[in-house]
Each structure stands twice: as C-alpha cells, then as structure tokens.
Amino acid sequence: MSDERATDRLGQDLALALQAGDCLALYGDLGAGKSTLARALIRCIAEITDLDVPSPTFTLVQSYDLRIRIAHFDLYRIGDPDELIELGLDEALEEGAVLIEWPEKARDFLPDDAIAVVLEEEDEGRRAQVSGPQAAMERIGRSLQVRSFLDRSGCGDADRQHYQGDASTRVYEKIRRKDGIDRVLMNAPKRLIGPVLKDGKRYAQIAHVAEDVRPFVAVGGFLQQAGFHTPEIFAQDLDAGFLLLEDLGGNGILDKQGKPIVDRWEAAIDCLVALHRTKIPSNIALPDGPAHEIPPFDRDAMMIEVELLLSWFLPHKHGKEPQQDLKDRFHEVWNGLIDCLATAENSLVLRDFHSPNLLWQAGKRGISRVGLIDFQDAMIGPAAYDVASIVQDARVTVDPALRNRLVWRYERARKDDPSFDLPAFREALAIMQAQRATKILGLFVRLKQRDGKPGYVRHLPRIEAYLNHALAHPVLRPLHDCYTKAGIALSES
Fold first, then answer.
1. What is the SS3 assignment for 100?
2. Is 198 part of any domain?
3. Residue 109's domain is classified under what CATH number?
C-alpha cells in the first residue's frame, strides 16, 4: 500500500466482506497503520466518511451500533489476557464483529477462526497480508475482486459503501467517486442455492431465476431501446458477475412516511401499459456470448412457486407438515387455474414490479419518469402478473381504493387495444394475484428460516390480506375452499 489512502481503501474492502461473528486481528508495529485501517473499516460500515472514530487505547474497547455491530479493541495497555473476559470479547463476537489491535496480547483468548491482517513497512509504503478460514477468505477475496474491477473501470480510488441487499444473493454498493457522480455496483456471483428438486434441477432453475448478470444486461438493453428507463451500464465483467451501473438515486414512489404517492403509482401503471403494447422478442442478443432466451412463465415455474406455501408457510403457521390429501387437492386446483391462463394475453413479466424497484426520475417525461432496476428474472407470461405485483405490493399496504384506481387506470388505457379482453384480464389478474401471494407467503418464511433474513416475515399479514381479496373472484372459488381447509385465516368470499 503506497499511502494512507491505500490503507483506507483496504479498510473499505475488508468492511464489505465482514460479517457478524468475524474477529479481525490487526498485527503490526507502532505506526504500521492498524488504527487507520480500523477507522476506515468502521466509517465504511457506518456509511459516514467523516465519522469520529477515537482510538480505544485508553478505553480498551469502543463499540459502534451500526449495520453490523462493531467492537473495536486495543489491547496495548492490558496486563493480563484474562482482562478480555471483563471487556466482553465473547459477548461482542455474539452480537457482531470484532476488531482487535495488538492481538498478540490476547493469547489463547483469540478465536481459532480469527482473520489475521498483518501490516508491515515496505520501502516507502506498507504491505498487508491477510489470512484466515476458507469461508472468510472467499468473502475477502471477492471483495478484493470488486476493487480490482473498479480499478479497471476507472473508479479504483472511489469510496465503496454498502448500498443494499435483496431477497436474492445479489448485493449492491454505492461507488462514491471524487467527481461527485456516484455509481452503483452490482455484485452478483453465479450461484445455485438449494437441493435438486425435480428433473435434476434446483428451485432457481425451475422458477427461471437468473443465475448470472447476463439476463440483466440483455433485458435492460432491450427495455432501454424500447423507451423505458433502466440504468446505463458503464462497465461489466459478465463472468465474474460485476456491473457498474448508473445511479438512479433513492427517490422512489413512496412518501417520507412510506405511503404511496398516487401520481407516481399511476405513472408506474402507465409504464406497464406501454410494456404490454411492446412486441417482445423470444431472445435478446448480447455483445459477446450466446443470446439470452427469455424463459416462459410456464406450468413448472408457477407450480414450484406456489408449492412454497406447502413446504414453508403452512409448517411455519401450524407447526406441522400438511396432510397428503390437502397437498393432492392443492395441486389439482392449481393445475386447473393454470389451465385457465392458456388464453391469457402474454407479455414481458418483470416479476417484481413494485415499490422497492421503481425509482422516480424527476425532470423526465412519460414512462421515463419510472426508473426500473430489477428485471433480470423477466419471463414471458400473463401480462396481468405485473399489474398484480404493484397493486398488492409486498412491502407497503395498497388500500382497496388505490388498488381499484390503479386497475381501472390500466383497463381504461388498454380497452381499445386489439389484444385486450377485459373479462379475460380480470380473471387472469385474480389468478396471478393469488399465485403471487401464495408464493410470497412461502418465500418470506424460507428467507427467514433458510437464509437468515428474518425481516421479511413482518409482511406476512399484509400478504394474507391480499390473498383474501384475490380469492373473492369466482374463478378462485375452488382455491378458496382448499385454502380454508388448509387452515389459512380467510373470511368468506
């Protein structure tokens, strides 16, 4: 590392690989840069570049309640390793991550899986050596790959900051450049999660969930050419799964209280109207490699999604597996409903067309006002699906008056289109609302129990309410009866 700025960058790189339970042991002589590294790491996790991070030389430990809780230890002044018990090292590791300067003084109290960072003077700069358990080194190696990608993209000296994660394995970073024009980094390693379920395929393969960044590049390019607003891609490494994207900002379609801004939701509906009038190709060319074939929202995909209710939600709700006769009836009813979709109008299904993925672009006009950021899992399927997605937003309550207003706006705009059949649309909308709500009930429980993301389950009551509304449509009467037998709390339709 040639200077203090390079040490700062390494601190950010380590911060974005850090997880709760990690112990980072910082070795080095006085003046080697341990405190500089720790300060950069803490500021990165705090997302405050000028955060005051005092040295814990005299207090021995300083705690920070951040996205990841951090305890920063400086053991230079301790006389006996037993003092670590009183300082609460074990508790700190249970609650978050730990940074330790002068870890040599911890002796046997240092965790066996500690990550060692050794800083040494070298010529006019410093050299850093990092070692630790394989899983931690894979995370750190991935983060260092990001820095290398940024170097190649002309953003090597930019500050990195955690931006957001989502229900997938993708993570995003805000890349803060010196010229003040931020970028967004998508970090999406190719990864298949879960066991083989059917015909040698995992859930993601059956449900047509994107396995790498190529679908994002392909679908985003197509949408841009068709007049929709998606992030410009400034740099890409398709094999590694890195994209450097335009930052569309954080101005969404909700107000400061988290409630829908009606005119923005209406603009989102207008965006769907335009999308459903757009001719969709079966495949989209990529500049290098094979074309991306847009998968169909077929029976297998729909069924594997609704089956999440059986495998995750019902056991969560009732504490036991559903009976076989209920499973048989569930599959019978859903296969019949999917048959009803055979004549439904098809279009590009963006899949998660709801408030977290719609960013308001002030100063733009028409459909360009709605920035689209999540479309890598797009399929060709019932056009009603994305209407269902926004009118039963999983993260924010859409009250009946707004729901009706949005559906009526869509129907009025489409009524003279040759491909639009109003009764068929309303039937497909009811089926897609039920399908999506059924999937999400199971998915959110799976995110908690399998993936360690408990925050999603707070939305379950809202999704159950959406499902209850959808089941009022006559075409869903058999499903209503099946779900009532399943013990899902529903009022009579």
1. strand
2. no
3. 3.40.50.300
Q: Who contacts 418 (Cβ-Cβ below 8 Å, separation ≥6)?
A: none
Domain-terminating residue out of 106, 133, 160:
133
Which residue intervals of 247-381 are DSSP H helices?
A: 262-276, 299-306, 308, 314-318, 324-340
Convert the pLDDT of each residue in 379-394 to its tens digit.
999 999 999 999 999 9
Per cent of the chain over pLDDT 70 is 97
What span, in angstroms and rounded, lies between the C-alpha atoms of 33 and 415?
67
* Structure-block tokens of residue 475: 């075409």
pLDDT of residue 493: 40
Task: Please give the structure tokens belonging to residue 133.
Answer: 């358990």
- Residue 458 structural domain: 248-485
Number of domains in the chain: 2
Is residue 375 a part of any domain in this protein?
yes
Residues 434 and 285 grouped into a single domain: yes
Q: Are 61 and 77 in contact (CB under 8 A)?
A: no
Q: Give the domain CATH number at 289.
A: 3.90.1200.10
Residue 51 pairs in a beta bridge with: none
**Is pLDDT at 471 greater than 80 in this prediction?**
yes
Pick from 133, 167, 186: which residue ends a domain? Answer: 133
pLDDT tens for each residue of 235-268: 999 999 999 999 999 899 999 999 999 999 999 9
Structure letter (DSSP) for residue 249: -
The tokens describing 226, both together, are 């068709």
CB 358 within 8 A of CB 268: yes
Average pLDDT, the chain: 92
Q: Rounded to the nearest 5°, which phi and psi values hold at 488?
A: -80, 130
